[in-house]
Amino acid sequence: MDRKENLCANVIATSQSSENLSRIELLHWVNSTLGKNVKRVEDLCSGSEYCEFLNLLFPGCVAVKKIKQQANQEHEYIYNLKLLQRAFNEIGCDKAVPIEKLAKKRFQDNFEFLQWFKKFFNANVVCYAERKSHVTERDLPIKSTAQKYGPTTKSKAVHGTLSGVEELTTQVAKMKLSLETVEEERDFYFQKLKNIEQMCLHFVNETPEQKQQGVDDVIRNIVDELYKTEADAGASVDSTESDE
C-alpha cells in the first residue's frame, strides 16, 4: 500500500534504553488507558488493543467494526495485526509490525513490541496535542531566554495549554471509541431480534402438523440465537465468504 502524508512521529526503541518500563507498568498503562483487564503481555498478541490505541491518536485510522475484539485464534490475531500495519502505512509510520512473531503469543516478542509502542504513543500524543492547540512559533518562548532565566509565565501558559489539550483530546477520542463500540453492540442485538422474529413468523405460517413436529426445533434455534456471541457471528460470516 502506498504511504500517505506522514502524520506521525516515528520513534526508535531499544532493549538497552533506560526509559523502558517494566511488564507491570506497561500492563497498568494499557488497562488504565483503554479500560481493559489484560492480565499478560502476550495477550496483546490479538492486536485489538493496539488498533484502539492508534484510533485514540489518529481517529478513524482503523475501522472499529473491522477489529475482532474477541480474537482468540492465531488467524484472528493476524487479521487484527494486518489492520494495524495498514493503519501504520496510512499515517506514515516506518515500523514494520512483526505479525508472525506476535501472533505466536510469545512473551519476549510481544514485550519488545509493547515497549516500542509505548514510546510511539507518548511521542504522538504530544504531536497530536500540538497540532490541535494552534500554537505558533511566535507563542513559544525563545530557547536561549528559557535556558538562561528559566520558564517564563508565557511558556508555562503554553505548556499548560498543551497539557490540557492533550488530556481533553484523549478523553474525546476515548468517548468516540466507546460510542462506536456501543453502536456496534446495538446493531448486533437488534439483528438477534430480527432473526428471532423471522423464526417466529415462519413457524406461525406453518401447518398444524408442521408446527407439532417442529416446535422443538424452533425453541432450540431461538435459544441458540439468544446465546450466540459476536465471535460466533463473525465465524459464520467468514465461513460464508470462504464458501463463495
TrEMBL record:
Domain of life: Eukaryota
Subcellular location: Cytoplasm, Cytoskeleton
Pfam families assigned: CH, EB1
Transmembrane segments: none
Annotated Calponin-homology (CH) domain residues: 20-122
Gene Ontology BP, a term: cell division
Record-linked InterPro entries: CH_dom, CH_dom_sf, EB1_C, EB1_C_sf, MAPRE
Keywords recorded for this protein, A-Z: Cell cycle, Cell division, Coiled coil, Cytoplasm, Cytoskeleton, Microtubule, Mitosis
One annotated Gene Ontology cellular component of this protein: microtubule
Positions in coiled-coil regions: 165-199
GO molecular function, one term: microtubule binding
Gene3D superfamilies: 1.20.5.1430, Calponin-like domain (1.10.418.10)
Ranges for domain EB1 C-terminal: 157-235
Signal sequence coordinates: none
Family to which this protein belongs: Belongs to the MAPRE family.
Protein name, entry field: Microtubule-associated protein RP/EB family member 1
Organism: Stegodyphus mimosarum (African social velvet spider)
